[in-house]
Design brief:
Length: 329
């Protein structure tokens, strides 16, 4: 009987095509990278999966996840046996495909209602979608409460070939993101004017391909977590995997893995949004590192342990395979 069920599941897998729709957004973004990585994992698991872009020949090449791409400009035909996956930032496609005979899923990459661009109180169920997936426990809880929709958690994956701790590469550098927030630039200007930092290089991590971005984290001694609207804070996990001392905010979802005190401390936390406290704390951390370069070795060690479970691609692959196998059956 089990063999029969397995055979049926394999047949469903062969018949079902999975299409991840992706915005034609060329700038590096963790969300669009996730879409490509999911397609790659599904193909590793034996599914027929592809990315869908609007304009012919558009594809994202700044990351290293290979995935076949089809283009709406070529007017592809979607069948009733297909599964269409839409990120929440594409509500126009969610609405336009409401009469599609196959199955549709939303992948939620942010908890922010503004990303979904729906009217207050509207739900994806209003457009015929009754399943969602996400990589963030915080987003999962938010959607289950606000939309009352079943949400399956797909574990995040941090590539251990790129995000790796190499102590010999560490330099006196402070890395920080700029795409959603300019606090890093402000702190650099303020602390430099105050004359409290010497020989530290500030590295804005903006518009970098994945190889260059990972290399910057491998060199950075400190990573500033300044953005608040983060469903998971993937960049923090990437920084931890590279042996950075993370200083900053948990945001919305970082509390899942960021610990600011006690035996399991893996970062230096300050109150969300408290820029004064962040500046003062960073100033203190730099002073302590000047006095003792190994002052935070234990915290960094805990950070490496925190990141390690997220560097198992088998967890992500299996979760995706389980979800789409069940959906296709």
């Amino acid at each position: 009987m089990a063999a029969l069920r397995n055979g049926c599941a394999e047949k469903e897998k062969e018949m079902t095509r999975i299409f991840y729709f992706c915005p034609d957004f060329p700038q590096p973004s963790g969300g669009t990278r996730t879409l490509y990585r999911h397609v790659m994992r599904l193909r590793e698991a034996g599914f027929d999966a592809a990315i869908v872009h609007r304009e012919r020949d558009f594809r994202l090449t700044w990351h290293h996840y290979p995935a076949p791409v089809i283009w709406l400009a070529d007017r592809p035909r979607f069948e009733a046996t297909d599964i269409l996956v839409f990120p929440e930032v594409m509500p126009e496609w969610i609405q336009q495909t409401r009469h599609f005979a196959g199955r549709r899923v939303v992948i939620a990459l942010s908890w922010l209602p503004s990303y979904a661009r729906l009217q207050p109180g509207a739900r994806w169920q209003d457009f015929g979608i009754h399943q969602a997936i996400t990589t963030s426990p915080a987003v999962q809880r938010h959607l289950e409460w606000s939309m009352e929709i079943p949400v399956t958690l797909i574990p995040e994956c941090i590539d251990d070939e790129y995000y790796v701790y190499q102590p010999g590469q560490k330099a006196r550098e402070i890395g920080y993101m700029t795409r959603k927030d300019n606090s890093g630039d402000w702190l650099q200007g303020t602390l430099t004017r105050r004359g409290r930092i010497r020989e530290w290089r500030w590295v804005p991590l903006r518009n970098l391909d994945e190889t260059t971005y990972a290399q910057a984290l491998q060199r950075a001694t400190i990573y500033l977590a300044t953005t608040l609207q983060e469903g998971l804070h993937v960049s923090v996990l990437e920084a931890m995997a590279c042996g950075c001392l993370v200083v900053g905010y948990t945001g919305i979802g970082g509390g899942t893995h960021m610990v600011g005190e006690g035996d399991g401390q893996n970062c230096v936390l300050v109150e969300n949004g408290n820029l004064l406290q962040l500046g003062q704390t960073l100033e203190q951390v730099l002073a302590e590192l000047e006095a003792d370069a190994h002052r935070f070795d234990g915290v960094i060690g805990q950070a490496l342990e925190t990141a390690r479970p997220y560097q198992d691609p088998a967890r992500e692959r299996q979760a995706l395979a389980d979800f789409f196998t069940a959906l296709a059956s």
